[in-house]
Amino acid sequence: MVNDAEFSPDGSRIVTAGTDRTARIWDAETGRQLHIWRGQAAALRSAVFSPDGARVATASRDQTARVWDAETGRELLALRGHTGAVNDVEFSPDGRLLVTASADRTVRVWDAASGRQLLSWTANIPVFTASFSPDGRRIVTVGHEKMAKVWEAATGEEVLQLKGRAERLIWAGYSPDGKRIVTATSDDGRVRVWDAATGYELLALSGQARHMPSPEETRYLAGKQAVAFSSDSAKLFTASADGIVRIFDSSPQGGSPPLRP
């Protein structure tokens, strides 16, 4: 099973992370497999290209994240220190840092050149996903609780809690302009949009199927594929269990109904 798939920054390649313990690179136009990398001892949860497309980072249930040369497949770094499955790994926008989210209830920040751990903090719950803000100054996480949390990337200080209703969250991420955060749920399929500076809820988007894929169904990574902003942050795309992709106006005045279901 494929747990994650991400385009390279130039859109020419796709990296996939599989339960077969491999990461694979594919030609995005032809679908031809370009590389296959083995080296982690358990299923991969996440894979992502660096902003310059030269490296790939992977996260695994073997309690490590690793960094690979995207052209040769050579392992460059092994990030060790977590004591539980690493559910997610992301590069900072400038490619200098990595953040990992783990079932061991910690979030950790690493130097992407040396692999040295720079910072670690406890989230008190298993953490599913972690994403940098576009300016790299903050990190938003989702874990096994009914809120998303925003942290200062330099200190690990918690600065915001994004609390919805009773639904369980599966993912959170920033809009490309950094002004908003979107959260996705697995219970009722509701998507919420928040002011990234204040934590104020701007929109609650309904119209999804009863639920988005649950964390158990998708190894905690469903939200990456289920929610996405357009490059100008003006529209929000959602996918749900009914097989329909919906497009919403993501401005505070928009949000319902979908622009084009």
List keywords for this structure.
about 5% helix; about 260 residues; Methylamine Dehydrogenase, Chain H; 4-stranded antiparallel β-sheet
Describe the structure.
The chain is mainly β and 261 residues long. The protein has a domain at 123-261: 7 Propeller (Methylamine Dehydrogenase, Chain H), CATH 2.130.10.10. The protein is built from 2 helices and 23 strands.
- Total E-strand runs: 23
Helix tally equals: 2
What proportion of the residues form beta strands (DSSP E)? Answer: over 45%
Radius of gyration: 17 Å
Order of SSEs, N→C?
EEEEEEEEEEEEEEEEEEEEHHEEE
CATH topology of the domain at 123-261: Methylamine Dehydrogenase, Chain H
Largest sheet: 4 strands, antiparallel
What's a concise summary of this model?
With 261 residues, the chain is mainly beta. It has helices spanning 215-218, 222-226; strands at residues 2-7, 13-18, 22-27, 33-38, 44-49, 55-60, 65-69, 75-79, 86-91, 97-102, 106-111, 117-122, 127-132, 138-143, 147-152, 158-163, 169-174, 180-185, 191-195, 201-205, 227-229, 235-239, 245-249. The chain has a domain at 123-261: YVTN repeat-like/Quinoprotein amine dehydrogenase (Methylamine Dehydrogenase, Chain H).
Draw up the topology in text.
Layout: E1 2-7, E2 13-18, E3 22-27, E4 33-38, E5 44-49, E6 55-60, E7 65-69, E8 75-79, E9 86-91, E10 97-102, E11 106-111, E12 117-122, E13 127-132, E14 138-143, E15 147-152, E16 158-163, E17 169-174, E18 180-185, E19 191-195, E20 201-205, H1 215-218, H2 222-226, E21 227-229, E22 235-239, E23 245-249
Antiparallel strand pairs: 1-2, 2-3, 3-4, 5-6, 6-7, 7-8, 9-10, 10-11, 11-12, 13-14, 14-15, 15-16, 17-18, 18-19, 19-20, 21-22, 22-23
